[in-house]
Amino acid sequence: MKIAMMSRWNATCGISAHAELVGREWVKKHDLTVFAPTLESATDWHHNPIEKEDEEFVIRGYEQPESIGKTGWIDERLWKEDYDVLVIQGLELLPIPTLLEIFPKIEAKKVLVWHVGKLPIYNELYKLNFDAIVCFDFRFKKMLKVKYPENIISIIPFPCHPVAKVKVTVKGDSDKKRARNELGIPSDKTILFSFGKQPLSEYKDYLWLANELKEKYNLKYFVIRSYGDLPPESDFLEVRRGIPEYEEIYNYLRAADIFLLPRSETENIVVSSTVFQCLGALTPIVVPEVGYVELMDKEIVKYKNREDLKEKVIRLIEAEELKGEVLRHAEQYVRENSAEKIAKKFVRLFEDVTRK
User: CATH topology for 175-336?
Assistant: First the structure.
């Protein structure tokens, strides 16, 4: 099957993460071409700079507009090449007026992967005719039925990074010990870990927690910040600046005892791409009880307030049976929603729409 995809690529946002997880599976068995935004237009205030080198199947083939509804250049190969399916991710980040002009020229079946947590107030967007629309869960589908026929909407969950393989050296060193040595993290401490570009306000619960538990558990809290303000230095906190790729993030997760995920509440329908990308590291994930993880259950640990956070983290540190139960559910979820399995579900959908 010959697949074209318009999406951000080699970036850090959820759209790019989804595109890469399924795209790297498709390219193993199918002819894939990714049309990604030009580097000049893809770097903006909301996303980290794209620094990785593109793969040979990636074309920097369109201009990402500064705001929804703006025009922009699109590479003519999108409609002149003979594709079976065109997959569009992040529609609101594409030059929609230009797409409206060229859509009739594209003979491929058109599939939209919907990421937005609310319906954009831009009516031209809904004039683009798709053969199928994919969303992540029933909440998105309920919202989309306001604008699109229900019979073209399918639910395919967000894909997960695979479960990390545990390795033991001939000397018997565990992954955790080796990761700590590589990263310069003390081997004798309880390690809490966070990363991301969230506002510092979202770290306040975790800074409070680390201060509360630092002496009892000989604890250290490591934070990687891609940009933005840094929390004040303290004896229990170490902040490192950087934009780590997921191989490095997984190394930190192996080194850590608990992953504290900063998140605040939102009115939009959302999923946490970070959770899906990090579950496979099999490090317990702790996160506030917010919309991002509304549909997650025993795979992660959710807390309501600071005292609830403290109680649950203490249990994760002291009770191996709780930690083991959380990680068993996490591993089961990852295996059921692996990038390989999700990519196959998309291919079955492509096969269905191309037969119509």
Answer: Rossmann fold (3.40.50)
